[in-house]
Amino acid sequence: MSETNVLTYAIIKTIDFDKVDFVEVVQEPTTVRYNLAGTQFVIKYNSTPSFISDGSVIPDAILNHSDCLALMATNVWYTPIE
Q1: What is the CATH number assigned to the segment(s) 3-72?
Q2: Digit-coded pLDDT (tens) for 9-62
Q3: β-pairing verdict for 33-34 and 61-63
Q4: Using CA atoms, how far apart are residues 66 and 13, in angstroms rounded to an integer?
């Protein structure tokens, strides 16, 4: 996989949702994943979106794929089915 195809994941505060330009990220507004509290969501992108690079949105975290998967498996983002 070339470097340009590697996705980056950003954890964004829900209060910044309206500042995200979904043209610049991989998913649609209806397909973002929220944490269980509804206070954060995750976006993924190939190139740093302008709303992040210009400081309009400051992510709580910027992660690679494996770190994002590990975060999504925590009790903040996931409730296991018993």
Answers
A1: 3.30.70
A2: 999 999 999 999 999 999 999 999 999 999 999 999 999 999 999 999 999 999
A3: unpaired
A4: 21
Counting Cα atoms < 13 Å in the Cβ hemisphere of 82 gives 0
Read out DSSP for 29-66?
A: GGGPEEPTTSSEEEEEESS--HHHHTSSS--SEEE-HH
pTM recorded for the entire structure: 0.90
**How wide is the angle at C-alpha 20 spanned by C-alphas 18 and 22, nearest 5°?**
115
26 conformational bin, left if phi > 0, alpha if psi -120 to 50, beta if neither: alpha
Residues 6+ apart with CB under 8 A from 54: none
53's tokens: 């690079």
